[in-house]
Amino acid sequence: MKNSLLTLIFIFLFFAHAGAQEVGVEATSNIVLNIKPSQTDSKINRADTPHFVTYDPAIKQGKLLLFIPGTNGIASRGPKNFFNTALKQGYHVINLSYINTPAIAQICKGAALEENANCAEDFRNRRVYGTTPFSLISDASYDAIVNRLTKLLLYLSE
After folding, report:
1. What's 141's DSSP letter?
2. d(CA 128, CA 70)
3. Which tens digit of pLDDT belongs to each residue from 64-104?
């Protein structure tokens, strides 16, 4: 009985998975761009996987959804169903590529946390702005999230 039940579950899961298709951003009239950060700023050479940008060109003055993937996130592999929903609501979507390793939990622990109670805040400020003094990560100002987004928006406007 137990083996029969396991077999039925396996068959069900196999056919359910076999019928599933990878969901991508709908191919209607939407534009999808993959733009390497180094194309927007020649100083950027770390975490140079492409930014993912998608929008409906029929919407001229849309809202912007900025998505920032977490640790080890890759912009081109973002949550496509979520992006599709945003597109349908009139948003332009940017999934930003940035230095997202190491994680805060890998840096702000033990002695580092004991020496600096603001470790997580300083870490995030360095990653976002690139100008905060924080020696435990080497992100430069041109690698920071703000610079990457600014340079991408300038690149897209041209």
Report:
1. G
2. 13
3. 999 999 999 999 899 999 999 999 999 999 999 999 999 99
Q: Helix (H, G, I), strand (E, B), or coil: what is residue 157?
A: helix
CB 118 within 8 A of CB 58: no
Collapsing DSSP states into helix, strand and coil, what is residue 86? helix
List Cα–Cα distances, 128 to 13, 32, 96, 98, 145, in angstroms.
Answer: 42, 25, 12, 9, 5
What residues have CB less than 8 Å from 1, skipping those under 6 apart?
none
How distant, in Å, are the alpha carbons of 3, 18, 24, 65, 152 from that of 73?
A: 39, 26, 17, 17, 18
3-state secondary structure of 40: helix
Whole-structure pTM value: 0.78
CB burial of residue 112 (10 Å; 0-12, 13-18, 19+): middle
Residue labelled with tokens 């919407």: 59
CA atoms within 13 A on the CB side of 47: 24
- Could you count the other beta carbons within 10 Å of the beta carbon of residue 48? 12
